[in-house]
Amino acid sequence: MDNQENLEKKDNDMQNYLQQQSPSLGKDSDNRKRLNQTSEEYLNSLTPTQRRQRITTLLVIAFISLLTGIDYAIILPTAWGYVNMFMHNHYGGFVVGILLSVFALSGSIAGILFGFLDDIGVSLKKLVLCGTVFIIIGNTLYFIGINIYVVVISRLIAGIGMGLVPPLLAELTRRSTPETRTPLFAKILGCRQVGLFFGPCFTIFIKQLHFKLFGLQVTMYNAPGLLMAVLWVVVILLTLCFFYDSPITTTDPKSLSEALKNNSFRQVYKYCLSLIKSPVIMVLLVTSFIAYFNQTALETTLTPFTNRQFNWHEVDVSILFAIAGIEITIVYIGLHYISKRVRDQTILVSAFIILSIACLIGVIILPFSKIGSTKYLPIFLLFVGLDILALPLIAVTTATLFSREMNLEQQGIGQGIQRFVVNIATVIGPLFAGALLQATWTMLLVMFIIVLLATILLLFMYRSFRTNQNDELTALISPVNNSS
Q: Could you tell me the membrane topology recorded for this protein (predicted)?
C-alpha cells in the first residue's frame, strides 16, 4: 500500500510540475507575450559592446554550421574509396553504412547530454570547446586510418563532438526575439547548405594531394580528416576570441535539479507514451522516419552504385551532391511561397506521391540497366531529382504539422520525441542500404513499399490534421526589412 501511495504521489508530482511549467492555453498566451516583451526589451537595451559580442557569437555559430555542411560533403563521397582500401568490395558498402550510423548515433546521444548540461547552466563556450576537441580528435584519427577499426572509431568520436549542435540551437533562441527567431534559424541552418556547395570544391582540391606528413601518406581518401581537423582548430581559436556566453539564462538550475530529483524516468516515459497515442501523431512519426530513412539510404548507396553502374568517381559524386544542394535550396525558397497558398498536409501528401513515383521509377528501370552502360543515366538522374525534391518538403511539413498536433505545454517534449525518431532513422537507413548494396533492386522495392504505405496513411488521415493560420513556414525566409 505504501509503495502504491508513493507511486501515485510521484505521478501527481509529475502532473503538478508539468502544469507549473506550462499553464493553461490562455495563461500560456499571456506568459508568452510577457516573455516576448522581455526578450525585445533585453535586445533593445544591449550596449554597443554587447551587440558586437552577440554578432560575433552568431558568426561563430554560423561558421560551425558551415563546417558541418563541408564535413558532410567531403567525407561521404570519399568514404567508399577509403573503406575499400581496407575491405573487399562485398563488405565495403556495409562498413560505409556503419560509418554513417555510428556518427549519427553518437551525435544524437551526445546531443541529449550536451543539451542537458546547457540547461543546468554549464557555460556554452566550454561545451563548444569540448565538442570541438572531440571533432578534432575524430578527424585526426580518420586521417591516420591505420585500419578500418580506427576509421569507424574516428567517426564515432567525431559524432560525439556534434552533440554541440542542440545547445547552439538553444542559444539562437536566447539571442533572438520571437519575430526574428525563425529567420535567424533559417540563416544559420542555411550556412550548412552553403557548406554543401563548397564541399565539392574541397574534394577537387584534395584529389591533387599526394605527399607525406609525419610519415603518413596523404591521399584524397584520408585528406578530408586532415582538412576538417585544421578547420575545427580554427573554430577553437574563433570560440576563444569571439564567442561569448549569453548574459541571461532561460532555466533556473535549482528548479531543474528539483524536478529531476522528484520525477523518475519511468514517469517521463509514461508521459511520452501518452503523447503519441493520437493516430495523427503516430502517422507523422512514421512519415518522419520514412523520409529520413529514405534520405540516408539513398546517400549511402549513391557513391558505390554510381561507381559500379556508371564508373563515376569521387569528383563526379561530389558534383552531384552540389547540384542536389542547389535543388534543395530552391525547394526551400519555393516552399516559402507555396505554403502561403497550400495547406501543409497537402504539400506533405504531394511530396510522398512524388517520392513514390521516384521509387517506382527505380524499381521498374533498374532490372534493365546493364553495368557500365550509361543508357539509363538520365532516368537515374530523374529518380535522384524527384527524390531530392520530395525530401525537403517532407522534412519541413512533418515538423510543422507535428507542432500543431501538440499543445503549447507539450512542444518541448513532443519535438524531442520526433527528433529521437529521426535519429533512429538516420542510424537504420545507412545500415539497411549498406547491407543491400549488392541487391539494389530489393532495397528500392522495400523503399517503394514503405513510401507507398506512408502515402496511403496520409490520405486516410488527411482530414484529421489540425489547421492553423499562423503557419511557421511563412517565416522561413526573413523579410527584406527584417534584421536578426
A: Multi-pass membrane protein
Torsion of CA 97, 100, 105, 106, to 10 degrees: 130
Give the separation between CA 417 and CA 281, rounded to whole angstroms.
Answer: 11
Given 241, 262, 283, which residue is the final one in a domain? 262
In terms of average pLDDT, the best of 153-157, 198-202, 224-228 is 153-157
Looking at the fold, whether 242 and 277 belong to one and the same domain comes out as no
pTM for the predicted model, two decimal places:
0.64
Please check whether residues 242 and 318 belong to one and the same domain: no
Confidence at 233, pLDDT banded by 50, 70, 90: very high
Instruction: State the chain's maximal CA–CA distance in angstroms.
Output: 75
pLDDT reading at 249 higher than 70: no
For residue 377, the model assigns a pLDDT of: 81
Residue ending a domain, choose from 240, 262, 284: 262
> DSSP labels for 172-215?
HHHTS-HHHHHHHHHHHHHHHHHHHHHHHHHHHHHTT--EEETT
Q: Side chain identity at 484, as an amino acid letter?
A: S
Residues 302 and 447 in one domain: yes
Give strand ranges (E) for 152-309.
211-213, 216-218
- Determine the structural domain holding residue 326 and report its residue range: 264-484
Separation between Cα atoms, residue 20 and residue 23, nearest integer Å: 6
pLDDT tens sequence across 418-428: 767 777 887 78
Assess contact for 434 and 96: CB atoms under 8 A: yes
Domains contained in the chain, number: 2
Who's near 139: CB < 8 A, 6+ residues apart?
Answer: 154, 158, 224, 225, 226, 228, 229, 232
The pLDDT confidence band at residue 64, using thresholds 50, 70 and 90, is: very high
pLDDT averaged over every residue in the chain: 73
Domain identity same for 403 and 341: yes
17: enclosing H helix or E strand: helix 2-21
Which residues does 239 contact at the CB level (< 8 Å), separation at least 6?
60, 125, 128, 129, 132
**Separation of alpha carbons 189 and 300, rounded Å:** 23
CATH number at residue 99: 1.20.1250.20
* Same domain for 300 and 234: no
In a domain, 462, yes or no: yes
- Between 108 and 142, the more confident residue is 142
| Residue 8, in any domain of the structure | no
Same domain, 129 and 145: yes
414 pLDDT band (50/70/90 cuts)? low
Is 195 in the same domain as 272? no
Q: Among residues 54, 58, 59, 235, which one has the least CA distance to residue 131?
A: 235
